[in-house]
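User: I'm putting together a teaching handout on how multi-component assemblies are represented. Below are the sequence lines for each component of a complex, exactly as they appear in our records. Could you produce the 3D structure of the whole assembly as structure tokens, so the students can see both representations side by side? Please keep the chain order the same as the input.
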Amino acid sequence: MAEANGKAVDLKTNFLQIYSRLKSDLLDDPAFSFTEDSRQWIDRMLDYNVPGGKLNRGISVVDSCEILKEGQLSDDEFFCAGVLGWCVEWLQAYFLVLDDIMDNSHTRRGQPCWFRLPKVGIIAANDGIILRNHTPRILNRHFRDKTYYVHLLDLFNEVEFQTASGQMLDLITTHEGEKDLSKYKMPVYNRIVQYKTAYYSFYLPVACALLMAGETLDNYVDAKRVLVEMGTYFQVQDDYLDCFGVPEFIGKIGTDIEDFKCSWLVVKALEIADENQLKILEENYGKSDPACVTKVKSLYNDLNLRAIFSEYERTSYEQLISAIEAQPSKQVQEVLKSFLHKIYKRQK
Amino acid sequence: MAEANGKAVDLKTNFLQIYSRLKSDLLDDPAFSFTEDSRQWIDRMLDYNVPGGKLNRGISVVDSCEILKEGQLSDDEFFCAGVLGWCVEWLQAYFLVLDDIMDNSHTRRGQPCWFRLPKVGIIAANDGIILRNHTPRILNRHFRDKTYYVHLLDLFNEVEFQTASGQMLDLITTHEGEKDLSKYKMPVYNRIVQYKTAYYSFYLPVACALLMAGETLDNYVDAKRVLVEMGTYFQVQDDYLDCFGVPEFIGKIGTDIEDFKCSWLVVKALEIADENQLKILEENYGKSDPACVTKVKSLYNDLNLRAIFSEYERTSYEQLISAIEAQPSKQVQEVLKSFLHKIYKRQK
Ligand SMILES: [Mg+2]
Ligand SMILES: [Mg+2]
Ligand SMILES: [Mg+2]
Ligand SMILES: [Mg+2]
Ligand SMILES: [Mg+2]
Ligand SMILES: [Mg+2]
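Assistant: Of course. Below is the structure of the complete assembly, with chains in the same order as your input.
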């Protein structure tokens, strides 16, 4: 909870107010002379794609800032942290809009993917680009006079490059040519997840908070390593919940099996399956026929993947905790632990 | 011509050598752990999309630097100018790869569009993103210690934002809904061209050279205005040559009429056509049937569009020259004139 004007106000509400401010700034950007049509287009595009997620990444910038400051943020500090949080959300929106086009997906956050709207179609590709361009516009407007402005630009550029590179790995591993399970190995999986998800989802929010606190990121390579590990663990959970989670909790019905996804579950299954079981996977993985999905799920049960996941979760947690406790700064330890406890044993 | 090791060496050859150096840097970027497959993918993708154009934009950074310095560039200065020139070319490659997907085009620079290659397909969208990410990687590697580093980042971010915004205008004006010529008006045309083409093709190369020369861009808003005007004139030429140019000179057979493009020619024709002529346009513009194309071309002849273009070219030139001569700096005047004389009355 953040305090404003002496009253406790819901953090998420305050965070969402910053979104409205940023949106109206962008719709009046002097670098472009908007027409009525184009202003309306951007307005709708932003509302459809930016604020509708869980906002965990964005809000964790604010949380991390509070911990690093060891106390409550001033209104100005809250605003700055919130703006950086929204930059993370904007970056994610950009990647999701384009990822849905490339994956030919149908739904996202419980509604049709942006490019599926009849009026939008392939214009969505340029909208993704526009979303990408908004981050530096926001940073320039609100941070250009800060000493850490150039470090923020470098940070967002580096993390975006890593995310796009992870996406490339994913695309050339899992899209190229015919369906081929032989490419789905644990080191391949880990590398894709690290680059495609972990840097922007876990490292970036904390790095934003560290820069705001006046820190030099080169001094936090160990914390970065921990956050990237945590991001990997988070994605393994995501893959687990896609199959074994409760749809009412996770808010969707998983389709990783149908979609031939390079999921932690199938990679693990391929590691431990015998010859017959391998054949079952080859014949049934990546098919939309419900009978095939059922066969894959019952194979996952035969292979005890629930128990193997629980064991993975337990050892990951232990390793993360000891890596966190080896960090020299107590506040950084607290930032990392707070992050870990948000996701440990999550059901959604 | 640039001199190296005391011998005259062809500028373009030297410029292309810098490309090879930049490519190998990118293939060893420590921010990503490349696999053999992904390194090869990027290698091919770059060779296919980055160096195959006329390189006018990139080389004009080097030319502008030489003029601003009033003398020959040192090897180091040549290298820096060349690197910035390649950043402009990379930015263009990024936009072209994505534009071809959005326009569903077939060929580019005399070869199939990148996304048309069977192995590539929609992965091309992410390759566009990777190309976009390369610019800040290159700038960070070669310019991070320069005092103007942050201004380079701001410049590329602003110009990219303007280009993407111009692309949006183009897409929502010319792609949305049914074919509708009533939207094709001169102010609409000018706005699209200014943002989509002029900033990155004309302003950006000169702005790079000004930053390298230690200048503050805020002091050159008049020069910027001239360059944006010149970029508009350049696009009008492009549209003219698409219909009236000699295919052997321009290196392709124009298809703007078939593609229902918002070309200067059709906008002008719509301005001056009588009711019957309007009907001819409505019935024949944007159709691939050669008989329809012939009807549009003969209407353009009836309307004297060649002569109207010549008159436009003459007055544009005069206005540009007097705007150039009003610039306070002689070197800036020379940079702008050299740019103008590269394009005035061009046949290709
Ligand atoms: Mg996807
Ligand atoms: Mg994907
Ligand atoms: Mg998932
Ligand atoms: Mg095009
Ligand atoms: Mg286009
Ligand atoms: Mg053209």
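A couple of points students might notice: Chain B has 14 helices and four strands. The first helix of chain B runs from residue 11 to 26.
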